[in-house]
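Service request form, structural biology core

Requester: graduate student, group of Dr. S.
Request type: structure prediction, single chain
Budget code: on file
Notes: please return the result as structure tokens.

Sequence provided:
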Amino acid sequence: MARKKTSREEILKHSIKLFKLNGYYNTSMANIADACGLIKGSIYHHFKSKEEIGLESLKYIHKYFEENIYSIAYRKDLSNLKRIELFVKKTDDYFLHSEGGCLLGNLALEVSSENILFKDEIRNYFLNWEKALAHILQVNYSEGKSIELAKEYVALTQGAIMMMTLYNSSESYLKVGQKIIALIK
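Core staff response, request fulfilled:
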């Protein structure tokens, strides 16, 4: 019998945190149930397997970024400078207040070579991030150069997230956003 009722979304939120902090392989269904205040069997009322939870966690974060960050690149009511500043601010807000780094970056390293569904979702997340940035950058650069710069920014951001976590300092991370903003100024 469950200790309390928990929604699918609450399970995903707890799972995301555990996957980010402990890794996918070091997080068990029992860990997820404990974090949610459930018995292990209760999780199966919402998800068939840990793999389903992992994939849905990736999709959950991807959807968040699509709706709250990537969409900024396509807003017509903002100047290009305002779009890039808001894009960077919202990205910073997420990663600076998100314990454990980037779920998609972490799982790209841990499981994408073994799980094609995870790999596809992670790849789409990063491609959509690059496309959104490239869209903003095309005001000052060719399509090819915009894509190149967007890929570089995403890679720098991911590296900076890792270093921020490792050194417990956001200084280097914040410089990455300032570099991309400077490309529009």
